[in-house]
## 1
Amino acid sequence: ATNLLNLARVAQASGKPVESHVQLDQLLADAPLTLPHERQAEAAGRKAQLYLAESNLDLAAHWAARGEALCGETCPTLAALMNLRAMAALRSGDQSGALTQAARALAASDERSPERTNAHRLMGEAQLQGRNAANALVALRNALALDQALGLPTRIHRDLELLGQASEALGQVEEARAFRSRAQAVLSATTKLLTPTAAAEGQIGRAHV
């Protein structure tokens, strides 16, 4: 079972979603007898992430919820699964659902967990979607501060882009221009260092999940 999970991770990181689905389906079919609930939850989360990448939002939400049910309150993937549910809701246009799931992820994550920054960012995106740019700015500044502390350049780039959108929505033209300029500088500095495998990894793909 552990070998199948590793194969699914490699296939996902290599941009082979069909192969990853096959490995995960085989693993989950046998999981009740062979795999601890925490690993089952990770496998379900990977299914959710694959479906998000395919824009199959209903199945993404289903698998993230299934993973959360398997997880239990102390499972290390819990906050990531909640964030995946928030992402599915956000992309479905469900601002309220996205805010609810991101707030749950925030409460379930450690102070220096990357999932905490993801939760802040998702809350900011949901607030932007709901045309509440002032609240979005607060959430996105929180995400940026944590991402800078953790040294996560691709996420810093995303934070700065979103801060530019929020500032523009508030009519803060100079601030928006400054955020976008910083975002471009971060992108330029990191693009050549970002490998295809690193770019393919998402929330479930990283070590914290």
## 2
Amino acid sequence: LTFAGIVTWIVHSLVEQNRQIARFTVEQAEPLPAPPVRDSEKAALLGRLVAFAAAGGKDEGAQLELSVADCNILLAIATDAGIGGEKDSTPYPDLLRFTHFDARARLLRADIRLPMNKLPWQEGKRFMAGSATSSPEIDNGSFIARIDGVSVPGKPVPDGFVRNLKVWDWLDVAKKKNAHVAAALKKVTAWRIAEDGTRLALECGRPA
């Protein structure tokens, strides 16, 4: 290919990708509901996290049970700690809101509002607004939660796009920005979702 041919191919690829993404995104999307979180709730949950991490550091058996509300409080705590929300980044509470846990499928379910870039010469953002499932697992010695699937009402999302999302660990930014978070997640040895779908339990050390 000539240089002009390569440029033409690149532009064509970008335009085609943009056309595909436009099929399941919208120009405007209502912000996700953000129930107020009291400082006392954050402090109580932080205390439980610190105790869990301390037990894991001593290889003592411990269990941390998180409700759906707890997981959403964690998103607020992450923002307070400067995790997410940097330049060209979006705070966690603006991206997702956990809605429930699926014990049978072993998945975490959340509403999402993911901003996506347009073509380089276009201004503004667009949004993929719908729901997502995340699959918790212990990988390479650390607790992670990878995207398992996404859905947008009335708009089919291509399988190839979903496959690209599946490499994304929701907890990755937190682990990179906070050494204490990374250390605590490396202490998780097992996890489970309660049968009634109300709790996500993390375990560390010897059986609690």
